[in-house]
Amino acid sequence: MQHTTIWPGRPALAPASRRAARRQDRHPRWMGWSATTAVVAAALTVAACGSSPPSSGTTPSSGAAASGNVLKTTTINGVSVLTNSKGFTLYSFAPDTPSRSNCNGQCAKFWPPLKGPVTGSGIKGAFGTIKRSDGAPQATFDGHPLYTYVGDKSPGQATGNGLNVAGGVWHEATASGTAAPAGNSSSGGSGGYGY
User: Fold this and answer.
1) pTM for the full model?
2) N or C end of the chain: smaller count of CB under 10 Å?
3) Residue 166: partners with Cβ closer than 8 Å, 6 or more residues away
């Protein structure tokens, strides 16, 4: 073996010997990494095989509670309104029908549809889902597709209530299922976004 000194007191290996030494050094580490990866992949495969897909009906399954889609209510300016699980106000859009959302494309960027299914403890009314134009399920309450609004920056705000944009009027989704009066918003300003 040919030795050259790089650091005082440590011999350097010739190039062919370095490659062999690297393979010997890497092999045990690579095997440990490979074995760990294989164990993780197997665990994920078993977990994926054990889950079942959500039901496709219009009524929410018990999976709605597990997925965090449990609606709540809060009082804003004397009106009991529905909120998502994070406390953000939910809205309905006047041009929608019980089976169709009329807020798509640019509109849906400002008024994100609430993914379904959902449920709500102590809320009287019918929860369901519709299929959006892109095929995604959207939550409904008493036949009204539900949305959040990007103008609401914190829980308890309702800056979108009464706005007439995107071809119709937006209302807070009330726990009673009727539209909240326009102008009953707790907004700190307008936020129509002019689209």
Assistant:
1) 0.61
2) N
3) 93, 103, 106, 107, 110, 111, 195
